[in-house]
Amino acid sequence: MTGCGAERILKTQGIGAYIVSVSDQQPANETPRPKPLPRLPGRLGLSGKLLLLTIPLIMIAGMLIYVPSIANFHMNRLNDRLAAANTAALVLDAAPLGMVPDSLARQILKSIGARAVAIKMGQQRRLLASADLPPAIDRDIDVRTMTVWSGIRDSFEIMLDRGNQAIRVIGPASGGGQFIEVVIDEAPLRQAMYRFSRNLLLVSLAIAMLTAALVYFALHFMFVRPMRRLTASLVGFHENPESSAYIIVPSQRGDEIGVAERELSDMQRDLVSMLHQKSRLAALGLAVSKINHDLRNLLASSQLLSDQLSSVPDPRVQRFAPKLMRSLERAIAFCQSTLSYGRAQEAAPDRRMILIEPVVAEVRESAGLATDASIGWISAIERGLTIDADPDQLFRVLLNLVRNAAQALESRPKGDAATFQIRITGRREGTVAIIEVSDTGPGVPARAREHLFEAFQTSGRPGGSGLGLAIAAELVRAHGGDIHLVEGTIGATFRIAIPDRPVELLSVRNERARA
Questions:
Q1: pLDDT value for 28
Q2: Model confidence over 134-151: pLDDT tens digits?
Q3: What string of DSSP letters covers 344-390?
Q4: All structural domains of the chain with their residue ranges
Q5: Mean pLDDT of all residues in 288-298
Q6: What are the respective helix, strand and coil percentages of the chain, to the nearest 5?
Q7: Which CATH number does 346-514 carry?
Q8: How many other CB atoms are there within 10 angstroms of residue 204's CB atom?
């Protein structure tokens, strides 16, 4: 067996048997409940980080809106004062000199929120009206040359100032005037800007909160919740990888998260299937380890009895006794190395140049086909063909293939008129020995070809264990060879290619020198 997943495999004393610890396994009838996603103390989850990221971004967006808005309000406020001053200038300029009473002039200045209005026409600069002029002008603002940046700067300077300074605002004049000047107080303008800022901030805060909530919930449902599902599935699957309760059910999303869900689901199903297979291999290892101990003792007793047959003078006994002793020796050797497959490797092959024909003949007799007239046997081995291989391992490879072929022929309907035949051919292609084992059976089903040489992957025939081809493939690969199913043949044809070992020229030269 190649592994055991979540089980622990321990070696027992002396015989190399495996015992599977099942104390950690969960009862088969109990369905685990998904556990909530664990949270690390003192750390924010993905939702908290998303909220902390959304709020400052919305605040930055609000500030980017507020700064030009307050500058635009400041500019519009000044333009309104200039427009009102132009209207008042038309009234004041139309009246004859000295005909506008001071009380009316004060009312006009109060209505436009100014202390004085002056206009320049040609080379003459006239003061149209004034009331409570300050001793000095603290700030000049010319709206004709104002830029965006200067407007922003002037707006925040006014808002950050203290007191009530006098501001002279200069702008284009209506009619034939060159420009008009208005002297206004800074405090009312500052108060108006404060009120606008408060209202704008309240509206921006409401919009920001609504936008942040919409962005947060949209991102939460689109990304955070699917990521939580993925994370919870990964955590639960890590705790119990043999349970299918934690396999994520992929959604129908077509984006990267949907692809991740589908790939994770496929990976988890493959892992669960693989771990179940490993568990089966571990259980089989436990059963084989128990059988191995008693079977070796029985075979040893049979070997002692077979040794006594060599003294029987009967010619038939003398003919079959060596073969029986050889079979018992091979069976004992198999029992001795029963668990080698469970250790994920076979013993290294003891390779040497051997003839193939005697091995094939022994395979036929061991498979019981020498006396079975219902299955035809054709051996088309090149005369004197040799192969660089371990004879015992080559025997096991061919015996597994021949037995599979015989089982395939036996599974055919009794009334089938087709010829029941097993054919073994052998030839050499340069330094590679080619052996083909074919039969006239129903062939290998298409669904079984993908995992043909994996353990416990049977072709669906009754009585098959699914280990024959896996063992054969492992032994062939240990020789540096290859085994595969030949396509487009009647029945099933397996081709084995085993190359000769490369000759070390230096060692050959040394041997020649010593000779």
A1: 39
A2: 778 888 888 888 888 888
A3: T-PPPP--EEEEHHHHHHHHHHHTT-SS-TTSEEEEEEPTT-EEEE-
A4: 1-26+240-338, 49-204, 346-514
A5: 66
A6: 50, 15, 35
A7: 3.30.565.10
A8: 20
